[in-house]
């Protein structure tokens, strides 16, 4: 197998459990707080939004959590996903590095998002929920939940950030093909949306605004719950199936990563590939470098503050301690819509604060250039989000060429770019420009952070 390109696991070896990094944290996470009382939340506080099984996973410190058989049955449509050795890219870069990528674009929705969408739909259906509301940025999450809704006969209502709604019409068509409703956010369907539009009729929207709209509708009906596609513990938990598979696939070729790389917006795909390896390190295993890559125009980890903040713009959600640019921050309309979020997953924020994860930020033009370099070698056009991980991987491979080191580099190719060709068309035509995050807007948003006494 010395020249293997695709490293494949049979369905019989698909993981039966997800991995929960909370079991191995050297310091526990800061508690989630009620937005009004600032007291730690309990299950009853979250029950209007989530089914109890999901709430239990959110709060669990159990290391391994069983994947229900009905969820594994749906996973079998595309899992285990392939691990590729990027031999053509290695040759193009003339690097001694061994580059591997876990390709999550083989899912029906074209990204890693169904790993949690299928699970959340299953748990909601099991508790008698009829309707789920959610938000989506670039559309990968909305597409995945639409798919999951069709699998489990659930009504799905998606609020899509307006700039992406306009940029990516085929994502909307994908959602509607599976029976979901897709509305540009901010909208006139909610009080939160109407308030934003009254203040700024031309608002391009943000994930924080779309979350507010989805949460507002969810709490109005007993048969409705809310689902989130990233950030929260249970979402990151469901994504670890990718890293668990990758660990086994690397064993098949007698290798282990020196570095694990992923793009980060809310944090779920990075956690999915990194946490199983980071957990091994925390339990005394091999030390690995973990690189979280974000857009320079929404630099949550590299420039944000590690503090308590709301997850949404209208302040309906509980307070979590995370790296944040402020819940009122509206990122510019760069093309990696899945990375346009003001906050970062509490688990990733916590581990970054402890020094286990190293963040870096790139501009969108250099990421698109890296994505095309990868595509021309490997034959897969990455999603704009995934291009950030590609860029960091290429940089590290070039560094290995300069130093002569033969490191094993693993990254998560979290989705393909087949719905994002307008972005590539614009890039190739020279129409894309860097979208700088406004320092003044960041300062203003951070000034609105909640005051939490003693924490």
From TrEMBL:
The answer to whether keyword Transmembrane helix applies is no
Q: Which Gene3D superfamilies match?
A: 3.40.50.1100
User: What does the record give as cofactor?
Assistant: pyridoxal 5'-phosphate
Q: Which GO terms describe its cellular component?
A: cytoplasm
The Gene Ontology terms for molecular function here are:
L-serine hydro-lyase (adding indole, L-tryptophan-forming) activity; pyridoxal phosphate binding; tryptophan synthase activity
Q: Which CDD domains match?
A: Trp-synth_B
Q: Which PANTHER family match?
A: TRYPTOPHAN SYNTHASE, TRYPTOPHAN SYNTHASE-RELATED
- Function text: The beta subunit is responsible for the synthesis of L-tryptophan from indole and L-serine.
Q: Return the similarity comment.
A: Belongs to the TrpB family.
Which NCBIfam families does the UniProt record give? PRK12391.1, trpB_rel
Give the protein name, as stated in the record.
Answer: Tryptophan synthase beta chain
Natural source organism: Spiribacter salilacus
Which gene specifies this protein's sequence? trpB
């Amino acid at each position: 197998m010395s020249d293997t390109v695709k490293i494949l696991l049979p369905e019989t070896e698909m993981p039966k459990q997800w991995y929960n990094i909370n079991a191995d944290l050297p310091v526990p996470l800061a508690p989630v707080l009620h937005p009004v009382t600032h007291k730690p939340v309990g299950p009853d506080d979250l029950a209007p939004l989530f089914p109890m099984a999901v709430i239990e996973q959110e709060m669990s410190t159990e290391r391994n959590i069983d994947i229900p058989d009905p969820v594994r049955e749906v996973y079998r449509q595309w899992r285990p996903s392939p691990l590729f050795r990027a031999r053509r890219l290695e040759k193009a870069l003339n690097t001694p590095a061994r580059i591997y990528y876990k390709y999550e674009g083989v899912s029906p929705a074209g990204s890693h998002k169904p790993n949690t969408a299928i699970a959340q739909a299953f748990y909601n259906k099991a508790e008698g929920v009829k309707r789920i509301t959610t938000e989506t940025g670039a559309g990968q999450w909305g597409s995945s939940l639409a798919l999951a809704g069709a699998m489990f006969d659930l009504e799905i209502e998606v609020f899509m950030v307006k700039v992406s709604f306009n940029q990516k019409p085929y994502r909307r068509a994908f959602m509607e093909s599976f029976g979901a409703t897709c509305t540009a956010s901010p909208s006139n369907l909610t009080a939160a949306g109407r308030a934003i539009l009254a203040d700024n009729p031309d608002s391009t929207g943000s994930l924080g605004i779309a979350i507010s709209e989805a949460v507002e509708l969810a709490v109005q009906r007993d048969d409705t719950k809310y689902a989130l596609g990233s950030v929260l513990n249970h979402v990151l938990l469901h994504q670890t199936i990718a890293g668990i598979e990758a660990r086994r696939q690397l064993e098949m070729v007698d290798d282990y990563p020196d570095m694990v790389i992923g793009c980060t917006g809310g944090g779920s795909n990075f956690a999915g590939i990194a946490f199983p390896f980071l957990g091994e390190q925390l339990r005394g295993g091999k030390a690995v470098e973990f690189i979280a890559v974000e857009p320079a125009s929404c630099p949550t980890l590299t420039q944000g503050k590690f503090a308590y903040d709301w997850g949404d713009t209208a302040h309906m959600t509980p307070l979590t301690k995370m790296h944040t640019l402020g819940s009122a921050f509206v990122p510019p309309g760069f093309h990696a819509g899945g990375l346009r979020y003001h906050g970062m997953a509490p688990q990733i924020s916590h581990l970054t604060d402890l020094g286990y994860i190293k963040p870096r930020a790139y501009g969108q033009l250099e990421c698109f250039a890296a994505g095309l370099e990868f595509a021309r070698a490997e034959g897969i056009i990455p999603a704009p989000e995934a291009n950030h991980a590609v860029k960091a991987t290429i940089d590290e491979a070039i560094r290995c060429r300069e130093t002569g080191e033969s490191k094993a580099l693993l990254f998560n190719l979290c989705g393909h770019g087949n719905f994002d060709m307008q972005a590539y068309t614009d890039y190739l035509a020279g129409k894309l420009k860097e979208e700088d995050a406004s320092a003044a807007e960041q300062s203003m948003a951070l000034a609105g952070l909640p005051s939490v006494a003693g924490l």
